[in-house]
Structure formats: C-alpha cells, structure tokens
Amino acid sequence: MRRPSHQGRIGAAGVLWALLFFALVVGLAAPPIPAPAAAAPARSERPKQATVKATVIEGTQRFPIYVMQTKGIADKYNLKIEEIKAAGPQALYTVMQTGDFQVSFGGWLSVALMRAQGYKFINVYSVYGYTNDVMVRADSPLKSIAELKGKRIGVFGGPSAATTWLFRLEAVRYFGFDPLKESKVQFGAPPLLIGLLEKGELDAILILDPQIVQLLETGKFRSIGNIGDIWREKAGQDPMLVSISMNETWARANPDVAKRFVAAYKESLEYLKTHAGVWPELAKQMGIKTEAGAKLLRERTASNLLTKWDKKFIDEQYRYAAEVLKVFGDAEGIPKQIPDGTFDMSFAP
C-alpha cells in the first residue's frame, strides 16, 4: 500500500507563505495612504443685506453716512442706507412722530420729551456735542450774547429743540435774560434765517455747521458766541447734543440690523476723527470752497464727534438734564423727568 504523498500540500503552503511575506514587505516599504482630509471649517456666513431708512438733516450728522457709503463701511456690514432728508429739527421730529422711520439723529433731550409723550423712541449711541454759534453780520455792533436782550434772534431749532434749551439756559444763567421771553425769536430752517440776517431783518441767528463755516468763509459774518464752548467753560460739562435715535419697535424686531448699523456708524465716526483727507470732500459737498474752510470745518467738528456709550457717559447726560430742569422744570416742551428706557445700551458695539 502506497503512503500518501504530502509534497503537493507542502508546496502550496510554501507559495502561500511566500505571497504573504511579499505583501508584508511591500506594505512596509510603500508610503502610507493619507487619511481623508478633515472638512474645512465652514466660513461664517455674511449677514443678509438689509436696507435701513435713515432720516437725516443735511450737515454734521450726515457726514458719517457719507463715509459709510463711500469708504466701504456700509458694504462691510452689508447695509444699504436709504436717506430721508429733513430741512431741520422740527421737520425731523415730524417725520419721527409719524412712526414711518427706523433711524434718525436728533437731540437726545427732544427724543426724551417725545418718549415721555408716549412715542416709542430710544437713544442708542452718541453722535456729537454742541458746536452751535450765534452769528451776526460783520458790521453788527453786537459783541456778546448778553447784548441780545430785546433783539431779533433767529433759531434753527424749534422751541423744544436741544440747542434751544442750552441757548436759553446759558442766557438765563450767565447773561441775565430769557431769549424766548425777552427777545423776539423766530424759528426756521438755516437757509431762511441766513437770508433774513443778510437782509438785516434779524440781528443774530443761532445755527449749526456747515452753515457756520460757510458764513465765516465769506468774511461777511462773525460769531459772538459758541454755546457749546460757553457751557463747557462755565459749567465744566460736555453734554451730548445729537444721538442715534431709533424707532424702538423696529429696533426690537430687527436687533441684528440695528446693531450692524450702530457698529457701522461708530466706525464712520472714528474714520472722520482719524482721516484728515476726507474733510475736503465733505467741505466741497457743503459748498465750502477754500482749503482754509475745509480745515476749519474739520477743526470745529472732528473733536466733537463722540464715540462713547457706557454708564458713565449716560450718567453725565442725566446730570446735564438736571441742570436744565433746575431752571425750566415747569416749562412746556421739556420732560419733567427723563423717562425710563430713554438710553439703551443693547445695540452698542
């Protein structure tokens, strides 16, 4: 009987072991197969473009809007600004009271009054302080606000405008008379008042920039007092005049858009304070024709642009309001107290 032969099975096993050894050697020598790349982190989504309706008076408060639209800042925050022009504070407040506005730039004290009357308005960020001058013709004998008692005075804000209150407060406290009671006051838009002053139908006018610079540039007019400088020197306070004011209902319904607008406006204020080259552009738009005029506009304006919005700053505004109320607390057109919610910090950068 023949013994079974194992030669074939041993040969097959040997081949199998040889193949396994070869595969192992090749595997060790080959470069490692790279692991699948991790997914790149998702880029933060660009916010959806939003249109903001801004009611604005031509002049200083519009300068940041111009910067936002021409220096890439509105694009950075994906905002489109729809401007609604107002001739002066009274026209601005009329638009606000219709409720058909989102953002405006008003005297914060006037906004507080309207809030006390039931309007849902809030102040959400600072814009600038007082830079208003009392202007007379160059040939006028008047040299001081103290000489305006009994005179014909044009005032660009209405009777409850923030500038009107400071003008009255200074006149009563430092010059011994109340213009609204002891002078002949006419309210109107700056172009109207300038025309009346030029014709000699008014003795003096309280107005704002850029019209002040325009008048000084002609050499035909001069200032007899800057109400902001007078208050800062005599009272030691530097109150805010204009703030970013919002329709509270709109702001609460669109908090992201409201925050983006405030951040863009603040960035534009900072741009104005640090980029001297933008001022000739602004001056030209305002009809200021000389290099000296552009320089004067920047000197008068840039240092008074405000980029603060914290508890300390807001407390300073309450202290100023207390000074106004001490003298005019019983007068119409001023809140007996500053309503809760007048200042809102939730939209500030």
UniProtKB/TrEMBL annotation:
GO cellular component, one term: periplasmic space
Main localization category: periplasm
Signal keyword on record: yes
Domain SsuA/THI5-like as annotated: residue spans: 61-275
Keywords: Signal
Alphabetical list of InterPro entries matching this protein: SsuA/THI5
Cellular compartment(s): Periplasm
Similarity-based family: Belongs to the bacterial solute-binding protein SsuA/TauA family.
The protein's name in its UniProt record: ABC transporter substrate-binding protein
Species per Swiss-Prot/TrEMBL record: Tectimicrobiota bacterium
